[in-house]
Amino acid sequence: MIKTAVYPGSFDPITYGHINIIERGMKLFDKIIIAISYNQSDKKSFFSIEERVSIIKKIFKNEKRIAVEPFKGLLVDYVKSKNAEIVLRGLRTVADFEFELQMSLANKKMNSKLETIFMMTEGKYSFLSSSIIKEILSLGGSVRDLVPDVVVEKFNERLRERKTDIVSWE
Ligand code: ADP
Fold it and tell me: In what order do the strands lie in the sheet containing 115-120?
């Protein structure tokens, strides 16, 4: 039986912290579906859902065992629609744990067959989040070693479109 895991998240943008979880997850699962969630209000995200899909597809273009898709609605329904029963999540801090525990228990309540598998972040990525990347980039700092080049390129493209170097995340 093919073991498929769904790795859900906002990925706004994807970082090497996420990529590290995906690469390590590939040793445990036959297939990983990176499922990009529409935020409740997509206006709040920096990259559109299409941009996030396109960035992540570029990063994993040579990896046949990875699929990238947007999803809406309940994660449990999406996972079922993919004939999968495993959700992969990364854990950085105790703060992550509390939220993740609640989410995994709520998902289990909705589908008792669903298993959430947590992987601890690699130490060097424990401080890394999508928000910190946006903050550093918008203030002109370097995010080398934190995100792939394609993220920086897309970020700069979007800034040029907006014709501003001041970004507000509100
Ligand atoms: P969400 O918006 O659902 O929190 P994110 O895109 O922030 O999604 O992250 C998706 C998953 O990746 C979550 O399980 C999150 O804890 C994990 N993650 C995010 N950053 C890191 C990191 N630096 N190291 C390990 N896991 C991470």
Answer: 66-71, 31-37, 4-9, 86-91, 115-120
Ligand 1 is surrounded, with C-beta below 6 A, by 9-11, 15, 17-18, 21, 89-90, 92, 96, 121, 125, 128-130
Q: Is 167 contained in some domain?
A: no
For position 102, which CATH number holds?
3.40.50.620
CA of 69 from ligand 1 middle (Å) equals: 16
- Which of 54, 51, 70, 46 is closest to 133 using CA atoms? 46
What's the domain range around 50?
4-126
CB 168 within 8 A of CB 139: no
Task: State in Å: Cα 90 to ligand 1 middle.
Answer: 6
Domain membership of residue 111 (yes or no) is yes
Return per-residue pLDDT of the chain as tens, 170 residues.
889 999 999 999 999 999 999 999 999 999 999 999 986 655 578 999 999 999 999 999 999 999 999 999 999 999 999 999 999 999 999 989 999 999 999 999 999 999 999 999 999 999 999 999 999 998 999 998 999 999 999 998 888 877 554 554 44
Number of the ligand 1 atom closest to the C-alpha atom of 10: 6
Please state the pTM of the whole predicted model. 0.92
